[in-house]
Amino acid sequence: MTAGTRKEKSPYIPASAEIVKVEVLAEREKLFQLRLKNGGPLHHQPGQFVEVSVLGVGEAPISLSSSPTRDSLFELGIRVAGNVTRALHRLNPGDMVGIRGPFGSGFPVAELLGRDLLFVAGGIGLCPLRSMIQYAIDEREQFGRIILLYGCRQPAEQLFREELQQWRDRPDIEISESVDRCPPDQAWEGNVGVITTLFPQVEINPDRTTALVVGPPIMYRFVAAECLAKGIGKDRILLSLERRMKCGMGFCGHCQLGDLYVCLEGPVFSYEKLYQLRGKEV
Ligand SMILES: Cc1cc2nc3c(=O)[nH]c(=O)nc-3n(C[C@H](O)[C@H](O)[C@H](O)COP(=O)(O)OP(=O)(O)OC[C@H]3O[C@@H](n4cnc5c(N)ncnc54)[C@H](O)[C@@H]3O)c2cc1C
Ligand code: FES
Fold it and tell me: Would you give the end-to-end CA distance of the chain in angstroms?
């Protein structure tokens, strides 16, 4: 077939999606519920991401925040960072955005079946982890314990407050929460300290447990050390990496780490794999 007769759709052309609902999560974060214009499901896996575009502004990689088990709608939790996310925060229900993807390999769901899941979420890291937490809740009998350690800088920055309360109310989810500090004008009765201060409270069976960790890069080294100290194997500590990404498809090289494309083979990697790649601690 010649270029002139080629009918394949370019992978750079986004699908249209309508914003169904916008919810304010915290000062800098909003949750967007979206529906593809064709009405069909996105067919994503927990831990994958999409490239979201606003016409005339640009595109940004954003993790799927909802589980594919929910319905044909999907959700993105977005923090204001720069041009694209600022433009997204100005949109309302009924407005359209572009969606490419889903991209990346996401969490290895099949390998997690039957395992105890130790989720460790730092700040906005709860957005990508929520897709896997919801999945494990919806397929509850397929997983062992669900343990969530969630830390953010201050109480006002907690995301998904109503959903967190629903999780706290369930007997089959164990949650420990922390804030780095509590300013005098905010209320907090829980733990104060960085997220690693939650680890001594948690008893796990290391042979049964996989840790799923998403948060700011600074958190990874310290959380990985706590997981290792509890006896969790390096191959059972999963971390989601944020790299600068453009194409999301292994073409542009923006996300490269050594000879590996994070957009294709990640963003979720085991600690073991990252250790091999970097030749040193994460
Ligand atoms: C796989 C993946 C998943 C992501 N998931 C989410 C998500 O669920 N929710 C969310 O709010 N954000 C997420 N991000 C981050 C988001 O893509 C960036 O904040 C993005 O740059 C925002 O685009 P922008 O045009 O608004 O800001 P930009 O103009 O691109 O940048 C704003 C600021 O962020 C810095 N920056 C840009 N990209 C990165 C990066 N990858 N790492 C560190 N600093 C960066 C820039 O230097 C600048 O200071 C994800 C990123 C990746 C790679
Ligand atoms: S983002 Fe282009 S190669 Fe990964």
Answer: 47
Tens-place pLDDT, residues 190-226: 899 999 999 999 999 999 999 999 999 999 999 999 9
Residue 179 tokens, joined: 């804030």
pLDDT in tens, 90-113: 999 999 999 999 999 999 999 999
For residue 54, list its beta bridge partners: 58
Instruction: Note the pTM of the prediction, 2 decimals.
Output: 0.93
Q: Which helix (H) or strand (E) holds 36?
A: strand 29-36
HSE (CB half, 13 Å, CA atoms) of 166?
A: 7
- Between CA 279 and CA 30 the distance in angstroms is 38
Main-chain dihedrals φ then ψ at residue 56, nearest 5 degrees: 80, -5
The CA distance from 84 to 94, in Å, is 18
Helix ranges (DSSP H) in the chain = 83-89, 109-112, 126-138, 161-169, 217-229, 262-265, 271-278
Supply the angle between the helices 161-169 and 126-138 in degrees, to the nearest 10.
40
**CA atoms of 237 and 230, how far apart (whole Å):** 11
Tokens 């960085």 map to which residue? 194
Q: How far is the CA of 60 from the centre of ligand 1 (A)?
A: 7
- Is 257's C-beta closer than 6 angstroms to any atom of ligand 2? no
Is the Cβ atom of 269 under 6 angstroms away from ligand 1?
A: no
CB of 78 closer than 6 A to ligand 1?
A: yes
CB 131 within 8 A of CB 46: yes
CA 60 to CA 108: how far, in whole Å?
Answer: 24
